[in-house]
Write a structure and sequence with these properties.
The protein is of the alpha/beta class. Among the domains are: 2-68, Urease, subunit C, domain 1 (Roll), CATH 2.30.40.10; 84-218, Diaminopimelate Epimerase, Chain A, domain 1. It has 18 helices and 26 strands. Strands 4-3-8-24-25-26 form a 6-stranded mixed beta sheet, covered by helices on one side. Strand 11 (126-131), helix 4 and strand 12 form a beta-alpha-beta unit. Helix 3 packs across helix 4. The chain is globular. The model is unreliable at 557-562 (pLDDT under 50). The structure holds zinc ion.
């Protein structure tokens, strides 16, 4: 039995919670698999055989008979938008125009926004998310003209599922004072009709979006926010997630919502917050640095964006996109602006978690991070490249040398695979979401969902990393497949390393947080094409059972129709 050292107290400790008769995949150094685990005060007390662990049971212990089921360490999503998108959407009453909600055409989008407008006063924004032109009958984004036909009284935003393309109606453009001939904002672009020069209403990147959408349109009230966060977080823990990195917190009210939920004991999941530059100066002025917070809620790295999205085919590449001569994707910043921000943050002691998808964007980011480390050297900086999608040998070398950590899309090969196949072609897919290349180079790569850009369920992510097949069965860069254990590590111990928490999270070992997931089928022996269908039976965060599947109820992780 391995246990925490209790010899100084001289007393034998008893457990609050004990799981016995299981197959507990500890992910410790020796890759031990044990029968039982004991928990005390939110931490793992001991792991070992049934007999060893049963000696820690007392009358107050909550004893769970696993009946042979598999337990894995709590799953960690290294980058998603649980608060900044999913909670906010629910709290502000955003509507959905994704294919899952039955939208098949621009006409469907028109009718959804028209219905919403009838329920809102004219000063309220209509915000519709999840647009995906590749799944619309017209195979194109709607334009402002399409939106105007449905709603001209209210300002309307229809946002692409990848978050880098937004479409506004004429009323929205008018309120923002953005007219034909308006110069593009730095880091963004207003699309114009090539023959008339008229604005189409389609805009690229956050900078262009934020020049039209007032921040108040997306600011929830504290009360609605807390209620919505709880609702969303309950779904996350039901999928086996015990910790997430929240990747885009630009409004202090979002931190307040998370904190308030925690204080009211309505936060079942650990949250690591990546604030944007907008919040960085406020945090710095208050002396709040990385790691500030507690075991449940903590400030992490500063998030910024270098280029476009993979799912909208706008990642910044060195070469042209297949079949699109001269088109190399979109940068969302200039190297100078990126350097200014990173230098400012590093001078204040922050590290960075930066969205960079294409090889051209990653290269630019590595230049800047190397410069920053030369000027403000730190022993163990662990800057993060979020997505780090399209790589080459040189990039792998530079990442390895600099100690920068990539986190890649987990579910994308499955969920967005068919679209990626069309945009990037089969050859480039062999060096995209390059789990195998990173692991072979000894790089501590983790994985993320980027939800709501893809489903948050981590078992779908593991399924996708192991199989590298689209939902329709197309191979999506098979040379980058990894083993089940490697994919599991990307969602556990490797992800813990990304937040400097490898000593307290990511494996089932004495002294670590008691974060565990009981699975309804054995992840290590189930057919790999059925990983995504494994039901989550129980999720434990800090020794507390935060989710228990009702007998006979269906698992939530069903994405068969994508
Ligand atoms: Zn993101």
């Amino acid at each position: 039995m391995t246990t925490i050292d209790v010899s100084r107290s001289g007393q034998k400790l008893t457990a609050d919670l004990v799981l016995v008769n299981g197959k507990i995949v500890t992910l410790d150094q020796q890759q031990s698999i044990v029968e039982a685990v004991a928990v005390r005060c939110g931490r793992i007390l001991a792991v070992g055989s049934n007999r060893q662990i049963e000696s820690l049971v007392c009358p107050q212990t909550d004893l769970v008979d696993l009946k042979g089921r598999t337990v894995v360490p709590g799953l960690i999503d290294s980058h998603c938008h649980m608060i900044s998108v999913m909670t906010v959407d629910r709290a502000i009453g955003a509507i959905f125009v994704n294919s899952e909600s039955g939208v098949r055409s621009i006409t469907d989008i028109q009718s959804r926004i028209a219905v919403d407008a009838r329920q809102k006063t004219k000063d309220k924004w209509i915000i519709a998310r999840g647009e995906d032109e590749s799944k619309l009958a017209e195979r194109r984004h709607p334009t402002k003209t399409d939106l105007d036909k449905a709603v001209s009284s209210h300002p309307v935003l229809v946002e692409h599922v990848g978050g880098h393309v937004s479409i506004f109606n004429s009323r929205a453009l008018e309120l923002a004072g953005v007219r034909r001939g308006a110069p593009d904002p730095v880091g963004g672009r207003y699309e114009r009709d090539p023959s008339t020069g008229e604005l189409t209403g389609i805009v690229h990147e956050e900078a262009a979006r934020d020049s039209i959408l007032p921040s108040s349109a997306e600011r929830p009230s504290l009360e609605k926010g807390v209620e919505s966060l709880r609702w969303v977080a309950e779904q996350y823990v039901a999928s086996g997630l015990t910790c997430i990195s929240e990747g885009w917190v630009k409004d202090g009210v979002l931190v307040q919502i998370a904190h308030e939920a925690l204080r009211n004991q309505q936060l079942p999941i650990r949250i690591r917050i990546d604030p944007t530059k907008d919040l960085m100066s406020h945090l710095a002025a208050s002396g709040i640095g990385e790691g500030f917070g507690n075991e449940m809620l903590q400030i992490n790295a500063i998030k910024t964006i270098v280029d476009g999205a993979v799912s909208s085919g706008t990642a910044a590449l060195f070469e042209s996109y297949p079949g699109r001569p001269g088109y190399r994707g979109e940068l969302a910043t200039t190297k100078e602006a990126l350097r200014d921000l990173v230098m400012e943050g590093c001078s204040k002691g922050y590290r960075f978690a930066v969205h960079a998808n294409g090889d051209r964007a990653i290269d630019m980011l590595l230049d800047v991070l190397e410069e920053a480390e030369a000027k403000y050297p730190r022993k163990d900086p662990r800057h993060i490249i979020i997505h780090c999608t399209v790589i080459n040998d040189r990039i792998i070398d530079r990442i390895k040398r600099s100690g920068v950590l990539p986190t890649i899309f987990g579910p994308f090969a499955y969920y967005h695979g068919d679209k990626l196949f069309n945009s990037y072609g089969p050859e480039m897919l062999e060096r995209m979401m390059a789990a195998r290349s990173f692991l072979d180079a000894g790089i501590m790569v983790s994985a993320h969902s980027d939800s709501s850009a893809a489903p948050f369920e981590p078992l779908l992510g593991i399924h996708s990393l192991v199989n590298r097949q689209s939902a329709k069965g197309k191979p999506i860069g098979l040379s980058q497949r990894v083993s089940v254990i490697d994919a599991l590590k990307m969602y556990t111990i490797n992800a813990a390393y990304h937040t400097f928490e490898e000593n307290v999270m990511g494996s089932i070992e004495p002294g670590k947080y008691a974060d565990m997931v009981v699975l309804g089928k054995d992840l290590l022996t189930v057919r790999i094409d059925a990983i995504k269908d494994i039901p989550v039976d129980m999720t434990i965060v800090g020794g507390r059972i935060v989710y228990r599947r009702l007998r006979g109820s269906k698992p939530s992780n069903q994405h068969g129709d994508q």
